[in-house]
Backbone:
């Protein structure tokens, strides 16, 4: 973890990310900010469950991670910190903390599985993921996106590996949060820490 990447991860704002130009399992990350807001507010359980489902199914599908995934992980780490702090008095926060820990373990397992295979080097900086050359079109066109997926190198190797590497780095930056969880979350947190 370089200091530059750590600073980027801890200072990144939702508005800094061009979500509408990042790929997910089912399209683009256009709705990510709205779902992240719902999770951060931890209002009612039904809306939290719905937004969590939308985010997690778009960030990981059959062990594949996407361009929006590492950015989603940055904000889910912060949301986890808040959920853990509020878990005693807020049922939605309590539910969310447990679900996020399970999801983090899943994401980190994807990273480790990918890491064991032959792969390119990750891009040097987390922020490199937002270079213009890697972003998809400003306007969403489903047909155009599908055509792009037909290309041989839809994601350059170093970019694709970075989806995994920087998802892991995002969690790594918040390791201290995982080391100080309330006792009832100790077991799932320990499983996540083991994968770090």
Residues:
């Amino acid at each position: 973890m370089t200091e530059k990447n750590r600073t980027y991860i801890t200072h990144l704002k939702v508005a800094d990310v061009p979500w509408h130009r990042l790929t997910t399992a089912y399209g683009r990350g256009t709705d990510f900010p709205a779902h992240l807001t719902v999770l951060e507010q931890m209002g009612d359980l039904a809306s939290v469950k719905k937004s969590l489902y939308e985010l997690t199914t778009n960030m990981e599908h059959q062990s594949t991670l996407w361009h929006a995934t590492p950015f989603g992980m940055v904000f889910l780490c912060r949301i986890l910190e808040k959920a853990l702090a509020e878990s005693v008095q807020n049922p939605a926060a309590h539910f969310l903390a447990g679900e996020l820990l399970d999801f983090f373990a899943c994401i980190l397992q994807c990273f480790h599985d990918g890491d064991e295979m032959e792969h390119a080097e990750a891009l040097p900086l987390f922020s490199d993921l937002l270079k213009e050359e890697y972003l998809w079109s400003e306007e969403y066109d489903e047909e155009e996106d599908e055509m792009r997926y037909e290309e041989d190198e839809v994601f350059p190797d170093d970019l694709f590996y970075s989806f995994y590497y920087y998802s892991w780095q995002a969690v790594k930056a918040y390791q201290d949060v995982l080391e100080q969880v309330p006792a009832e979350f100790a077991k799932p947190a320990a499983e996540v820490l083991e994968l770090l």
